[in-house]
UniProtKB/TrEMBL annotation:
GO terms for cellular component: nucleus. Gene3D superfamilies: Leucine-rich Repeat Variant. Residues 375-428 form the Interferon-related developmental regulator C-terminal domain. Residues 1-53 are annotated as: Disordered. Keywords: Developmental protein, Differentiation. GO terms for biological process: cell differentiation. Residues 34-330 form the Interferon-related developmental regulator N-terminal domain. It comes from Pomatostomus ruficeps. This is Interferon-related developmental regulator 1. InterPro entries: ARM-like, ARM-type_fold, IFRD, Interferon-rel_develop_reg_C, Interferon-rel_develop_reg_N. The keyword Thylakoid does not apply. Belongs to the IFRD family. The keyword Lipid metabolism does not apply.
Amino acid sequence: MPKPKKRGSNHQRGAGGQPRNVQPFSDEDASIETMSHCSGFSDPASFTEDGPEIDEEATQEDLEYKLKGFIDLTLDKSAKTRQAALESLKSAFSSKILYEFIMERRMTLTDSIERCIKKGKSDEQCAAAGLACLLCVQMGSGIESEEIFKTLGPVLKKIVCDGTASIQARQACATCLGICCFIVTDDITELYSTMECLENIFTKAYQRDRDSNGVSSTHNTVLHVSALLAWTLLLTICPMNEVKKKIETHLHKLPSLLSCDDLNMRIAAGETLALLFELARETDADFFYEDMDLLTEKLRALATDGNKHRAKVDKRKQRSVFRDVLRAVEERDFPTEMVKFGPERMYIDCWVKKQTYETFKEILGSGMQYHLQSNDFLRNVFELGPPVMLDAATLKTMKISRFERQLYNSAAFKARTKARSKCRDKRADVGEFF
């Protein structure tokens, strides 16, 4: 985990209260309004080559002015306005590094998020939980982030365990709880407490097939999936003695989830199994699993599933995932993936790194590449070293002309069309039903 950051310098606050001319945004245009001021920062190549020179300082001031307005609107009486403001802040936080701006307002943001989670309804709670994740991603691992988690952690746990709260809100809070704990927690007691909270949720899926009164219904599956994935993320930073205990507890129970009707649950269970086997073999090179034949038989069936009652897209996704899971369990192999961001490359060569990357990619969306380039915390997590500093001359040499981009895009479009035409050909799907 990264070392704690030093407290940043404070900016002078603008005069007055709420910025002028800031109107409540609708659900549809809230994120668009923010992104129109943020997207240009996500990639140096997004600036036009021959356009007029942009005053970056003025643009930054304009962005901060709007963000201050959104922060004020999180306290609005209208639930729709609060939710729109939360979504706008999420868009900004995922697309640009705003460490100093957030440092000055972290307590205000934390209070707003806490209030929205406690008093808001389902959609507002989901938006607030998502913003809490991005707030911790922006702040990284440090004293300030710990203060945020001390405030929000109990609130998140309460919603996760509240059977009367909406499933969507509990799902979002479970994900948020896992990510925030992963980022900020150096206290091993807090880590174990958070894992126990998540464990109490997803282990209910183990008994679902035997539950005759329908308590563990399919309606709860999305919550179980989120809790399982968040728990798995935290397992990757546990001490090895705790990892061994968790493997002994769950490795023989998780295969039961491979028979779940929900595709996402099957995939989550399969990927968690692959990660557990990877960790088990790291702690013990001679690790032996008693029911290996039965497990590999299940995994092979899922990797070659051709049931007609399942959607073709779902079958392809399932087969792709479980081919990799089967290789990990049976052959101790992992298909290395390469992620490109700017001039850099990152290789994902194990299930632990894959799980971590997929989790943060889900939160940051299209801003993942930008954060991999510029976010000190993420670069520390993936061992990328300090951010690569490129001067204007180097950036200019990296750019290609508009004509070259058009030629490249045209060639790529033709190649995609050709490949998709082959996939649509009925002869390419002959083996689909065998």
